[in-house]
Amino acid sequence: KTLDAGRRSLLRQALTDLSAADGQIDLFESALRHMVRRHLEQGHGRGAALGDSLARIFRHLGYAVSTEYYVNDVGNQMRNLGVSVMWRILELRPDYLTAEERATVEGWNKEELYKGDYVYDIALAVTGRYPKTVSRPEGIDFFRQRGIEHTLEMIRTELERFGVSMDEWFSEGRLYEQNLVDKSLDTLRRRGFLKEEAGALWFLSTKFGDDKDRVIKRKDERPTYFASDIAYHAHKFERGFGRLIDIWGTDHHGYVRRVKAAVEAMGNNPDDLTILLYQLVSLVRGGKPVAMSTRAGEFVTLREVLDEVGKDACRFFFAMRSPDSQLEFDLDLAKKQAPENPVFYVQYVHARCCSIFRESEKRGFFVEDTSRFAPPEELAAEERGLLVRLVSYPDVVEQCRRDMSPHHLTTYLLALAGDFHRFYENCRVLDESRKVMLFRLALTDAVRVIIRSGLSLLGVGAPETM
Q: What is the pTM of this model?
């Protein structure tokens, strides 16, 4: 009774679905867990962290990099979004829609509509911005566009909190506005890679190693998403990019061969397109899987994880495994202010290095003084180990580029932090002779610089105090 009408409707639908499962509660709970993992895998979590870190690594190595978010804002799913917004408005404000709009909602297949709480947020935003007394365009397209705008704003805000910025937000609709889809199909037709069969238009992808040919226009002339994919990648090469890196969730693995086939059919080198597939993320709290969102009972959003553990822990934890490895995210560990928390362990070393220099300045020794150090005749084992680790940093960054994975960086930073802790425990920095002190200050400064650099490539902050 304390729930509003919209949430009561959601709960009622959930109970109906559970009842229809004929008592198979284990199956129902399993589906919820899958939804949790799927949202994080397909949303702006692991994929966003991977793409942003790779962009930072490539820029660090001197490459010219542009990051792009491809916005799927065309097709039936977007019309379903528009009607979903109308449906929720009909629940919240039955008098808001016109008679024709109400008829559209009532005649729509409700199974195709989006049922998440965010649709209520969009509905409330629309009715707030466009009161009934204010004239507005009528029909699905108006609500579809409002839904897209609201969703993109949420995504942008979430990504900014996550430390991710995009150079370009590319709308799929632009491909049709600029006639790029038809242009690509004309090219494929001239090259002999299209056929008409059973009333549909097919791309002959089997000529390029795919297991079957692919429909790119249906019988009713509506293009498939694959038609947009062909045009989008062709357009990227036409815009002058020499190397493309797509980042997809692992559930898109079946599309890899056909997209590379299309790239080759359009006259480009398929080896210039790299498609990275990243695996699922499982959230754990108290040693148990997190089964549902505390907010909506549907999925855990990136926003909720950021609220709970913060950006730095999120970014570091997402980068701790290679993209093709499944990742278990321990929320309790990510919040701990203790050495067993990997990101805390590394950040603490940076803060300690900064603390050493604050103390050295009190004694009249500054960072610039470290350039005048002379190496001692004999190195302690901890000093030698630290030096060896430090000089391997460029090789680790290059390995990240070569393997297209920042997880080598997290491994390296944890090892470097361990080396510094041993050095700090066994080699006094400030209470030694001037010669030894300057050398050890130089080592400390190098550790500070490398950790700050490595954390920056991961999109993680390097605090000076903790």
A: 0.84
